[in-house]
User: What shape does this take?
Amino acid sequence: MASIKIPLDALTSRFNLQGRFDSVRSQSITSRFANLKPISEFLDLKRLSKPANFSEVQTRVNYNLGYFSSNYAVVFVMLSIYSLLTNLLLLFVIILVVGGMYGIGRLQGADLDLNFARATSSQLYTGLLVIAVPLGIWASPISTVLWLIGATGVSVLGHASFMDRPIESAFSEEAV
Assistant: This one.
């Protein structure tokens, strides 16, 4: 059976995503959220309108992804918190692994000596692995991540495509 190759470059080049995430990698978190737009501007119902055609969708998405990028990052964080709060087993597994790694690291290579048993660091790591992997598989992190990608994509791209650009930006582009 022949494999189907999807030309992702042809799909993503229409949205001009090549250099979109370069500035995200180079910014710190404080400077990233310094240009957070007010909620009244982010949810301005007067600027919501149906785009006339696909080229207008592209223009709106390109503008809004850059203009509201910090707000979209907050939407992603809020959806991440929501997904962890609705999947408590996954939250428990994450806390268990982080807490276990922290606790084993606090031993600084020494054995854990209880009055009735002694465990080396490698035994503790193995025990953590044996407990965390089945629980992690049962917690279904893949479906949670896929839900998070889908919910963020629908929310962000839906907002970006229906939110019209401000009139000031339309006039400033025509003057150039």
Observations:
- The first strand starts at residue 112 and ends at 113.
- The two ends are 53 Å apart (CA to CA).
- Strands lie at 112-113, 118-119.
- The chain has a mean pLDDT of 83.
